[in-house]
Fold these 3 entries.
Entry 1:
Amino acid sequence: MTGKKIAEILKATFLFEGVPTDEILGFVREFSCKEKSYPKGEIIFSPEKFERVLGVVLSGRIAVTKGRLSVSELTSGNLFGAAALFNDEPEYASTLTAKTAASVLYFSQEAILTLINRDERIRMNYIRYLSARIRFLSEKVDTLGEISSEKRLSRFLLKNADDKGYVSGVSFSEIAGRLGIGRASLYRELAKLEEAGVIRKDKSGVEILKPSKLSRE
């Protein structure tokens, strides 16, 4: 991909908002940012294998998953790695897999730190991004506090069921963690649904028998 095209993609990201294209291209050259291509199906980051870099998707689609749960999809202009850039956690929070052939441009931790320290525009962009993430997470916590365990579980099952109405590939402990409830509470809610004939639970997962009976509110 040409340098000009890369700079145009970067300019549309939160980090380089308000920075002229020629300056962005200069940053890419100055820090020798690496462009890497991935074939469809290749794992880009995983909890065990990752780098403390900021990645910018240049082309293609990248799936973000936790276990077998689909979290989101990244496309051209989306960034990843910011949460792990300046912390010492030994594991990455999710797995990134090339859903199609994809290419990514990487900024090293040192490059981002240098840009933040010397360029006020980029520093403020990064602060705004982190502030927005904090607000998003805070609102999510508030929402979880307002919604009953039953409704949270219903939403989870409906969202993560396959075409046959089966939810698998994730442990009940992980489901409890994602819903923000204790395992005992989860098992109680599952038991209620099973007794009502809405679901069938086995060691591999949960089969939804009557999706219309699950709360969508």
Entry 2:
Amino acid sequence: MYSRKQLFSGSERESLFLWGARQTGKSTLLKTLFPDALWFDLLISSDYKRLITKPDLLRETVLANLNTTPVIVDEIQRIPDLLNEVHWLISNYGVRFILSGSSSRKIIRSGANLLGGRALRYELYPLVSAEIPDFDLIRAINNGLLPRHYDAVNAQRMISAYIGNYLRDEIVAEARLRNSGTFARFLEAAAFTNGEMVNYTNIASDCGVSVPTVKEYFQIMEDTLIGRYLPSFQKRPKRRVITAPKFYLFDVGIANSLLGRGRIEPGTELFGKAFEHFIYQEIYAHSRYSENEYPICYWRTASQLEVDFVLGDHEVAIEVKATEQATDRHLRGLKAFAEEYTVKKAILISNDPLPRFVDNILILPWKIFLERLWSGEII
């Protein structure tokens, strides 16, 4: 059992949505935090059939159990009409609901009731290092950080099943795509874009579809929480900067499998790419779990100077290198960024054995960086 960092800070007695990709651990977290809740699980066939046929059964059941709170509806996106009943119960009886699901796409596209601001929004992401006792970086990079995958002896088979059953089948069905084969090819092409700038034209050519179709597929990945854009930092640039966004899949293990990377070992180019992806996952989750939900961008100039992650309003600049000994050439991007913007902290994350301070840049071993990140010392 992992002690998760998502504790719904600030929600108190408010109703809330909890979104997250499949197998991030939403149900486990809610059962741990709210063991006595009244629970409706829409993945259970009997619950689903009863409520999709007669949504007002939710209201009738809740009214008979008003002393049992909160009321949890798991996989709410499967029956968007239930939100009308939820809205009525919140407005008239002050019932606290927790509505969890793997995607709000179906609800938004159906025009269903989004509760008019009566429910706060939270997300649950794959595991982070601070949630895992005796955290193993090599295991995390190879298995990914979905709880079942991280723990698995043979994670690759489980990841392949996840990609086939969920990413290729369920998401195609939810998005009502007519050509599942095209979306499968897109997933593989999008994986090659992982951590890189998005070129819609190239991906469209690879998949044999139009650019608008590729953009729609990326939107589906965002809506279903299996990928997200990393925007470029463009505030008052002196140098000419790249404006295209980057794109990251939500879990490093999923990216590895789609790319057919095999076993990733330290010291290889593949390790460097996966290591950067892992650090991004940690920073993104920290931003969303903390009360200070700071923006994250990347910075790159036309002359190829780059900083991997810019946090907040250029408060912290971070470069990620898997090297065991950072040198001056690894610091070029951070130095250039610091010449252009006032930076509170410039940090190079590496595999160096000990912290170092070079030209106002702090070189931190990854483990120390993560400890400081989750203790609130970075931003």
Entry 3:
Amino acid sequence: MNVSRIPRQPKRTALAGGLEIPRIVTGLWQVADMERGGRPLDRDAGADALADYAQSGFDAFDMADHYGSAELIAGRLLERPAEEGGSRPKIFTKWVPEPAAMTAGAVRAGVEERLERLGVDCIDLLQFHWWRFEHPGYIDAMIELDRLRREGLIAQLGVTNFDTNHLRLLVHHGIPVVSNQVSFSVLDRRAAGEMSAFCVENNVRLLAYGSLCGGFLSERWLGRAEPGAGEADDWSKMKYRRFIEAAGGWRIFQEILGALERIGSKHGASLANVAARWVLDHPAVAAIIVGARLGEREHRDDNLAVFGLSLDDEDRERIAAAAGEATPLPGDCGDEYRQQPYLTASGDLSHHLSGLQVTPPRDSVPGQSGRLNVGSGTGWERICGYSRAVRVGNRILVSGTTATHTDGSAICAEDAAGQATYALDKIAASISSLGGSLTDVVRTRIYITDESDWEPVARVHGRYFRRIRPANTLVTVSSLVGGYLVEIEAEAILPPS
């Protein structure tokens, strides 16, 4: 690469409103890994390292409530006066709450803790993560977060690891989500499909992490044997080794590395530059997040070279051919946090997911020892004499289900696909509370009021049941009680115990 083409500062983009950021954001997940032994990093030394990044133009930092002392280190940086003519670094943090009711008080407490740790009056970008969508508390949380945004405690509101269905639900329910942080790399191309299409159409930007697969997408690993015990044992490497295995293994990964290296040699760029540039070229992507191990390793100069690199059609075709040999990662963005295979550092998320099991009130029927009813807790069930779901033996039947939230309000009043998503989550929760899961569903029935909604609703149904494929009927009706656009019912048969 011609050195004269490498800019002195990273290219920038407007994420939303007045929030301008570099197209490479510095991620601080590694702080938690560096503090694994229980000894926190020196905050002043950490702030010095962040200041070096900011001085080079990489002045946006991504962190979370569970990234060790990352927020405290960033807060120490923000205590320092800005250089003359300079601007304050941009702080993205995440709130990942423990399972609990998302009351106004709980949400405010979560945000105020972030503000206190950072030492600021307003968070530039607050990103929300939710572990299990069958629990509808995420909607309550996002509504409250939006209230705090209007109050001035949050400048912009984002989410992290939301799939397309649930991102659509939030956006079409009126929540002003400006970004979704998801895994996106030549190895994990899930975000390039429906997620990107939705984001471009609805002005939501992607913040892509894992674009360098925790450092595996570099010359260091080209031609190397698969790492053994102790060679790649930081949390980032542990996580992305699972991605490599899910994509077909080390041999396939070496072929991808080889293709990226040949493209880099052609342009005089590093293998990592090519991998980063490929993700940045996607129109939905605002920025990629590249992790930093403060005080140990920094790659600012190499990261700057990304902005002097342009991929041509031949390069993109070569990447597509190499990546096409890999096994596509299953599902949609974020699925690795909610269902197997859990592509995380630990590979086990039971400590999060078990706590979010939805357990609606259950009751037995007098004289019928083999029957259980489960309700939603609404008054209508007793008035009208029905249950949300009934289990008799190994059979579960779920009543017609609409997108009625726990407070009685309608979710996505004008979007059939959003309503279908909410209804199917409610059905999944009902079946789960009776000992089953969506994999046990053998029949679904869908009622819609507008024939033109059949395809978006059917596509949502397909994302839940593509591998299960129950019997299904979809019909158009003149209207549904409550003015809903969609109503869905289901039947499940559990395997013999």
